[in-house]
Request: fold
Amino acid sequence: MIRNGKFISGVVPPPERSGPAWWFAFQENRLLLYEESSGLKLPCLVDFGELGLTALSEHYLGRLDNRPCYAVEVTEGTNPPAGMTFEGLRQVYGRLDEDLFWIAARAVQIVDWGRTHQFCGRCGVPLNTKTTERAKECPQCGLLHFPRLAPAIIVLVEQGDKLLLARSRHFIPGMYSILAGFVEPGESLEEAVRREVKEEVGIELKDITYFGSQPWPFPHSLMVGFTATYGSGEISLNDDEIENAGWFEVDNLPRIPGKISISRKLIDWFIEKQGKGPDNTLEK
Ligand SMILES: [Zn+2]
Reply:
């Protein structure tokens, strides 16, 4: 599912900056981009300083088609240079080259980790950044701090020609999706799938099968997708989080998530399985 296949991750930057590099510059979680009629463009420069902005921190990310990629953080309140804009990543999907988008999804998490992990959680002293791996080390107690990832499961439950969709209270009006939830410590992914569906809609599953995974940088999840079939029980909403849930036929779907998400990929997989082909008339 990961789209940045041409990207090779790295931690050790090239010894000198000779050619142009991609600069993923973030102010909070918003990415610095050029606005052009053909779409959004990412700055490609030898040095970030050419833009006249100061980088608070810089992280080497690796190479895309042999071109170095860097993530930098820009001070809050700084105005973008002329012709440029800071944009939220979700709003950027589909308007920026897809390889660059998924590297940006990686970059925003590393910048956020750099910003929020400056001191040791055990002794409170400033951390040193390791040069050989993506980690920070406490100079006092040696504790290592790695970028944070929160694994979450997402599952498409099918029953014959219908799929289970639910509506969370925080969704935009009319939107439904498949069920998802964070994995708890000590739990396998399959156990998380079973528990989450039982907790949220009260039904039992069978045939839980791995589908694929996707990084989800809002803010630092790894979505692990599954399919499953209905086992037993009636839908009952036990969780305050879910305000409605039900079985839907693919000809009669409510509003569903956009194409950026693995939830939509799972729903499109089910639609295709019904011999309908993905419905491109639905919201992108
Ligand atoms: Zn420490």
